[in-house]
Design brief:
The structure holds 2 protein chains of 2 kinds. Chain A is built from 12 helices and 14 strands. By secondary structure, chain A is an alpha/beta fold. In chain A, strands 3-2-4-5-7-6-12 form a 7-stranded mixed β-sheet, sandwiched between helices. A 5-stranded mixed β-sheet of chain A has the order 9-11-10-13-14, sandwiched between helices. In chain A, helix 9 crosses helix 10. Chain A is globular, with a radius of gyration of 19 Å. By secondary structure, chain B is an alpha/beta fold. Chain B has 2 domains: 294 residues, Rossmann fold (3-Layer(aba) Sandwich), CATH 3.40.50; 34 residues. Helix content of chain B is 46%, strand content 7%. Chain B contains 13 helices and 5 strands. A 5-stranded parallel β-sheet of chain B has the order 1-2-3-5-4, with helices on both faces. Chain B is globular, with a radius of gyration of 22 Å. Classes of the chains: A alpha/beta, B alpha/beta. Chains A and B meet through helix 12 of A and helix 4 and helix 13 of B. The complex binds thiamine diphosphate. Thiamine diphosphate sits at the interface of chains B and A.
C-alpha cells in the first residue's frame, strides 16, 4: 500500500501505527491533543486514541521530559513533542542529567525508552528561538541516540524504530521539509533500513558530500547543479551513533569529503566526522575534510537567514575548496 | 472563597462593570482625573489600532508573524500606566500595550515580527526589557532585577519597582515557580502580572492548574488577587497599589488579570480547531474599550467630539504604521556578526572576513558572467 505522504504526515502515520501495535505508547506535549500540534504532526491522534494516550501537558518542558522518564520507568513508551527547538532548553536537566544517564547508573536495570521529537532548523522565516539547530548538544551527551530523517519514507520508519528502541531517542524533525512528499509503502511489515544507518542518497565518484536532516535536499540540489564533478551525497540519518562504516566506504572511493549542516560549524557534528574520517581514511584523502555550516553567531533575524544557512552556493563553494588541493 | 476550579466564576476586583457602571472598592481606591480617563481611553483605542494594523500587515506579507493583544488592552494599559518612569517592566511577547505605555514606538515592535531585528529597543531607555519568547524566563529576570533595585537602596516611597508580565500557560513553567520563590524569600520589589487570557495556544487553564492562578501566591508566601482584566480602572488601581507596596518594602504580589484573547494565538494559529465561537461572543460583551466609552458618555467625561478625535488619531497612526513598516530596510548581511560579543572576538572576525569575501565573489562572478 503505497501512499504519497509529506514528512509531517509520515511521522503522523508512523506514530499511529506505533500506538496501534503497542498500547503502552503515549504521545505527550504542548498542544498535541485537540490542536494536533502546531505543525499538525499529531493530527487526529487525540480523536482516535483519547486524552489518556494523547496528553496535552502543562506548559513546562522540564515537566514533560521528567514525567516521561517516570512513565517510562513504569513501563510506558512516551513520545514527547517539544514544540520548537528553542524551547527545549528548560528540559536540559531532565534530558542530559537524568534521561541520558539512567540506564548506566542502574547498571542496566533500568531502560528509559523515551522519544523526544523536536522540530528543528531554520528556513521558515520565524521569529527568534524558532529556528535552532541544537543537535550537537545531544550528540555530545552519552546515553542518547540522536536521529533525523530527511524524507517521508525514513520519517515513517524511523519514528517507529525510535518508539521501539529501548534507549532514549532524540528525533529531530526538519521543520522546513515537513511538507516535502514521497511515496511511502505503509503496508510493508518492516523498514528496509535501520534508523542507525547512513544512506547513499545519490551515488558519485569525485567527492562525498555528507548531510543530514534539512540539508540533504540542499546537498542533492548542489550535486545536481554541479555538472563538472560527480558528487556522492550521503545522508547520515543517525548523528549518534554515526554509521562510520558507510561514510568511510564512500570516502575511500571518492577521496574527498565535504560535510554540510545548518548548525554552526564550531563544535558541530561536521567537525566530529571530519576528525574521525581524517584518522581512519588519512591515506585515501586527496584534500582536508571541508565543513560547511552556519556561522558561530546566534541565529539571526529571519530577513538574514538565507545568508546564515548554507545554501547550494555555499555548499558548492565548499566543494570548490576541497578540489583546490 | 467559593471557586475551586480554574474556570470557576472568579471573585475578582472590578471597578468598571461591563455595562459601564463604576463601583468603588475600599481596598483599591481610584484616584483619577477626567483627563487621565480620557488618556486611558485614547491608549486603548490606539493600541488596538496598532494591533489591527499589524495583523493586516502580516496578512499582506509584511510581517512574518504577529501575536495579537486583542481583548487584553485594558489589562496591559491599566497596569502599565500604573508604572512610574523609574520602574522597569519585563514583558513576554504580546505586551504591545505595555510597550506603548512605556513609550516604545510601535514600529520598533514591527521590526521584531518582520524579522529585521532580534530585539528592537534599548531597554534602559524605556524601562522596558526586550520581548521574551521562551515562556516564563522573564519572571526570573524581573525578580533578579528587583533584587538589584532592593540592594541599591533604590526603593522607598518615591523609589523603583519592577513588574513581570506572563501568561496563564507560563504559570506552569519551573522558571515561574522559581521566580515566585526567589521573590518571596528576598521580599523583592516585584509585581507578577499574569494575564490569564484563557488559552495557552490550544490549552485552556484546566490543563495548567486546578486552582485559580492568583491563589498560587499564597503557597509562596505573598498575596495574590484576581482582577477583571477587561477593566482598565481595576487594572490601574490594583497594580498601582501593588507596585507601591513593593517599593515600600512589603514584597511581591501576584495579580491575575482575568481576561480573554479575542484573536488567534498568533497569525499562524487557527483557533477554530480548539475553541467554540460562542465563547468569543460571550467575551465580546465584556469588551474593555466599549465599557469605558459607555462610562465616559454617561458620566459626561467626554462627548462625541472627543471620540471622533481619537478615531481620527487612530486612522493617522494606522497609516503611519503601514508606511513605517514597509520602509523598514532589510539589514546588511554582515549584521549577522555584529554585537555577538562586547569584546573583539577573533573567531567572529575571521568568519566575517571570509563571508565578506564570499559575498564579494558574487559581484566578481557577475562581472565575469557567472559561475
Ligand atoms: C519554553 C517554551 N515552550 C513553548 C513555547 C511555545 N509557545 C509560545 S506561546 C505558548 C503559549 C503561551 O501561553 P500563555 O503563557 O498563556 O501566554 P499567551 O500566549 O496566552 O499570552 C507556547 C506553548 C515557548 N515560547 N516557550
Amino acid at each position: 500500500m503505497s501512499v504519497d505522504l509529506t514528512i509531517g504526515k509520515a511521522i503522523n502515520a508512523g506514530l499511529r501505527r506505533a500506538m496501534e501495535s503497542d498500547p503502552q505508547v503515549l504521545v505527550m506535549g504542548e498542544d498535541v491533543g485537540r490542536l494536533g500540534g502546531v505543525f499538525r504532526v499529531t493530527d487526529q491522534l487525540y480523536k482516535d486514541f483519547g486524552a489518556d494516550r494523547v496528553i496535552d501537558t502543562p506548559l513546562a518542558e522540564s515537566g514533560i521530559v521528567g514525567t516521561a522518564i517516570g512513565l517510562a520507568l513504569r513501563g510506558y513508551r512516551p513520545v514527547c513533542e517539544i514544540q520548537f527547538d528553542g524551547f527545549f532548553f528548560p528540559a536540559t536537566n531532565q534530558t542530559f542529567a537524568q534521561l541520558a544517564k539512567m540506564r548506566r547508573r542502574s547498571a542496566g536495570a533500568l531502560n528509559v525508552p523515551v522519544v523526544l521529537r523536536i522540530p528543528y532548523g531554520g528556513g521558515i522565516g520565524a521569529v527568534e528561538h524558532h529556528s535552532e539547530s541544537p543537535e550537537a548538544y545531544f550528540a555530545h551527551t552519552a546515553g542518547l541516540r540522536v536521529v533525523t530523517p530527511a524524507n517521508a519514507v525514513d520519517a515513517y520508519w524511523m519514528i517507529q524504530q525510535a518508539v521501539t528502541s529501548p534507549d532514549p531517542v532524540v528525533f529531530f524533525e526538519p521543520k522546513r521539509r515537513y511538507y516535502d512528499k514521497a511515496e511511502v509503502d505503509t503496508g510493508a511489515s518492516e523498514a528496509a533500513a535501520a534508523m542507525g544507518s547512513a544512506r547513499v542518497a545519490r551515488p558519485g565518484s569525485d567527492v562525498t558530500l555528507l548531510a543530514y536532516g534539512p540539508m540533504v535536499k540542499t546537498a542533492l540540489q548542489a550535486a545536481e547543479a554541479d555538472t563538472e564533478r560527480s558528487i556522492e551525497v550521503v545522508d547520515l540519518r543517525s548523528l549518534a551513533p554515526v554509521d562510520y562504516a558507510t561514510v568511510e566506504e564512500s570516502v575511500r572511493r571518492t577521496g574527498r569529503l565535504v560535510v554540510a549542516h545548518e548548525a554552526p560549524v564550531t563544535g558541530g557534528i561536521g567537525g566530529e566526522v571530519a576528525a574521525r574520517v581524517t584518522e581512519s581514511c588519512f591515506y585515501h584523502l586527496e584534500s582536508p575534510v571541508i565543513r560547511v555550516g552556519a556561522f558561530d553567531t546566534p541565529y539571526p533575524q529571519s530577513r538574514l537567514e538565507e545568508h546564515y544557512l548554507p545554501d547550494l552556493d555555499r555548499i558548492l563553494d565548499g566543494v570548490d575548496r576541497a578540489f583546490a588541493y | 472563597m467559593s471557586d475551586n476550579t480554574a474556570h470557576g466564576e472568579p471573585e475578582l476586583v472590578q471597578l468598571l462593570a461591563p455595562d459601564g457602571e463604576l463601583h468603588d472598592d475600599p481596598d483599591y481606591p481610584l484616584d483619577i482625573s477626567a483627563e487621565e480617563i480620557r488618556g486611558l481611553y485614547r491608549d486603548l483605542v490606539l493600541v488596538r489600532r496598532v494591533d489591527t494594523e499589524a495583523v493586516a500587515l502580516q496578512r499582506q506579507g509584511e510581517l512574518g508573524l504577529w501575536a495579537s493583544l486583542l481583548g487584553q488592552e485594558a489589562a496591559q494599559i491599566g497596569s502599565a500606566r500604573a508604572l512610574r518612569p523609574q520602574d522597569t517592566a519585563f514583558p513576554s511577547y504580546r505586551e504591545h500595550g505595555v510597550a506603548w505605555a512605556r513609550g516604545v514606538a510601535p514600529k520598533e515592535l514591527l521590526g521584531l515580527f518582520r524579522g529585521v531585528t532580534n530585539g528592537g529597543w534599548d531597554p534602559a531607555e524605556y524601562g522596558l526589557h526586550l520581548y521574551t519568547i521562551v515562556i516564563g524566563s522573564q519572571t526570573l529576570h524581573a525578580t533578579g532585577y528587583a533584587m538589584g533595585v532592593q540592594r541599591d537602596g533604590a526603593t522607598g516611597e518615591d523609589g523603583s519597582a519592577v513588574i513581570a508580565y506572563f501568561g496563564d500557560g507560563a504559570s506552569s513553567q519551573g522558571d515561574t515557580s522559581e521566580a515566585f520563590t526567589f521573590a518571596a524569600v528576598n521580599n523583592a520589589p516585584v509585581v507578577f502580572f499574569c494575564q490569564n487570557n484563557q488559552w495557552a495556544i490550544s490549552e485552556p487553564p484546566d490543563r495548567q492548574t486546578r486552582v485559580p492562578l492568583y491563589r498560587r501566591a499564597a503557597g509562596f508566601g505573598f498575596p495574590g488577587v484576581r482582577i477583571d482584566g477587561n477593566d482598565v480602572l481595576a487594572s490601574l488601581a490594583v497594580t498601582r497599589k501593588a507596585l507601591q507596596q513593593a517599593r515600600e518594602g512589603q514584597g511581591p504580589m501576584l495579580i491575575e488579570a482575568f481576561t480573554y484573547r479575542m484573536g488567534a494565538h498568533t497569525t499562524n494559529d487557527d483557533p477554530t480547531r480548539y475553541r467554540a465561537s460562542a465563547e468569543l461572543e460571550e467575551w465580546k460583551a465584556k469588551d474593555p474599550i466599549l465599557r469605558l466609552r459607555t462610562h465616559m458618555q454617561t458620566a459626561g467625561i467626554a462627548g462625541d467630539d472627543f471620540f471622533t478625535e481619537v478615531e481620527d488619531e487612530a486612522d493617522r497612526l494606522g497609516e503611519r504604521l503601514r508606511a513605517e513598516c514597509r520602509s523598514l530596510p532589510d539589514p546588511d548581511p554582515l549584521d549577522i556578526f555584529h554585537e555577538v560579543y562586547a569584546e573583539p572576538n577573533t573567531q567572529i572576525d575571521l568568519q566575517r572576513a571570509e563571508f565578506a569575501d564570499y559575498l564579494a565573489s558574487f559581484d566578481d562572478a557577475g562581472a565575469e558572467g557567472g559561475r
